[in-house]
Amino acid sequence: MRYFIGNWKMFGIPSSFKILDKINQYYLKDKKSNKKYKIVMAPPLTLLQDFSKRFKNKKILISAQNSYHQDNYGAHTGFVSPFMIRKLGVSYIIIGHSESRASGETEEIIKNKVSLALKNNFNVILCIGENQKQKRKKMTLKTLKKQISNSIMKKYNFRKIIIAYEPIWSIGTGKVPSHQELKKNALAIKKFIKQKYRLKFNPKLLYGGSVDKTTVGIFRSINELDGFLIGGASKSSKNFIDIIKNFYT
Ligand code: 13P
User: Fold this and answer.
1) How far is the CA of 26 from the centre of ligand 1 (A)?
2) How far apart are the C-alpha atoms of 88 and 64, rounded to whole Å?
3) Contacts of residue 169, Cβ cutoff 8 Å, sequence gap at least 6
4) Which of 53, 82, 175, 201 could disulfide-link to 67, CB 3.0 to 4.6 Å?
């Protein structure tokens, strides 16, 4: 099963459900959709309740983009907990996005977020990725392993965790890793997780960073990838559908 997950970041107003409607219609028409792939969309917090109701019995699953790292309820002005989001019927959550890390989210906080999200029965999409400097210094794998080890504990149910490898230098830049480089990193991430957490199955791994209808073709043959986390191109139904079409052609 592959995943095409859209991350709208700070985008969308109530009428933007029309974008998802079109994607949903495509999914329903596409004969291979049910068996081959899932679509998950992460709109901003303001749209979660409306979208989770609208798409409840449809094919698109709704994800949150983040949540608070402590408590179900508490004196945390301006924040919402995974408990509160889960009550909206939202079943996926993105944690540790590099844009959240850049605005002060530490690995300790991310660890707590993962733990609380799993307790609330979410499917966690955990983002990891190296920056330009780490890549230049050949510290990519070291960085990724540290990010994984510091946020995931042994006892976790890896069937509820999806790792999203998003090199920071690739997000929103139009630059993507070479086929060879991404295959190597994807293999290394999966191998590391399998060994460290003694898994009997392969963990799920997505790639994110400037995925569009053209770049997706480069990655089509990387079997280690279980899907894509798509930013900019998920804001248009046409661009998003073109990614799926091009992936399967
Ligand atoms: P872009 O697809 O816009 O590069 O964003 C990737 C991303 O950050 C998804 O979470």
Assistant:
1) 22
2) 10
3) 130, 131, 132, 135, 175, 209
4) 82
* H runs (alpha helix) in the chain: 17-29, 33-36, 45-54, 82-86, 98-102, 107-119, 132-136, 140-151, 179-196, 215-219, 237-248
Q: Each residue of 195-227: pLDDT tens digit? A: 999 999 999 999 999 999 999 999 999 999 999
- 166 carries an active-site annotation: yes
Of 50, 48, 41, 40, the C-alpha closest to 67 is 48
The shares of helix, strand and coil residues in the chain, as percent rounded to the nearest 5, are 45, 15, 35
Going from N- to C-terminal start, the domains of the chain cover 2-247
pLDDT tens per residue, range 4-22: 999 999 999 999 999 999 9
The burial of 141, by beta-carbon neighbours within 10 Å (0-12 exposed, 13-18 middle, 19 or more buried), is given as: middle
* Ligand 1 atom showing the smallest separation from residue 164 Cα: 10
**Would you identify the CATH topology of the domain 2-247?**
TIM Barrel (3.20.20)
Q: Is 208's C-beta closer than 6 angstroms to any atom of ligand 1?
A: yes
Q: Phi and psi of 100, rounded to 5°? A: -75, -40
